[in-house]
Automatic annotation (TrEMBL):
It comes from Vulcaniibacterium tengchongense. PROSITE patterns: THIOREDOXIN_1, THIOREDOXIN_2. Belongs to the thioredoxin family. The active site is at 33 (nucleophile), 36 (nucleophile). The record marks 34-35 as: Contributes to redox potential value. PANTHER family: GEO12009P1 (PTHR45663). One of its GO terms (biological process) is cell redox homeostasis. Pfam families: Thioredoxin (PF00085). This is Thioredoxin. Signal peptide: none annotated. Residues 1-109 form the Thioredoxin domain. The record marks 27 as: Deprotonates C-terminal active site Cys.
């Protein structure tokens, strides 16, 4: 697992994500979620590739229920891309590294 990926919860979500000066891709996940584990290596690689330009943050839905409810997370993995505190893009379900990369790129342009 990349040390470039930040794990946040209900208490630090606002400061880590909404107040970030760079775009933030949030991965809503859980330990028991197979598809979440499938996309984890791609997220690790993208965190390295976009270091300094965008952040990747993981939110465990079992531990951070308030945040998951606030963003209407009903199935996981669910990726939300935030820019300037606003949701810019949403992806539900496991997708490949290229598609996740395109989400991040869209926020950088």
């Amino acid at each position: 697992m990349s040390e470039k990926i930040l794990h946040v919860g209900d208490a630090d979500f606002d400061s880590a994500v909404l107040q970030s000066s760079e775009p933030v891709l949030v991965d809503f996940w859980a330990e028991w979620c197979g598809p979440c584990k499938m996309i984890a290596p791609a997220l690790d690689e993208l965190a390295e590739a976009y270091d300094g330009k965008a952040k990747i943050v993981k939110v465990n839905v079992d531990h951070s229920r308030a945040t998951a409810m606030k963003y209407h997370v009903r199935s996981i993995p669910m990726l939300l891309l935030f820019k300037n505190g606003q949701v810019q893009a949403t992806q539900i379900g496991a997708v490949g590294k290229a598609q996740i990369g395109k989400m991040i790129e869209s926020a950088l342009n």
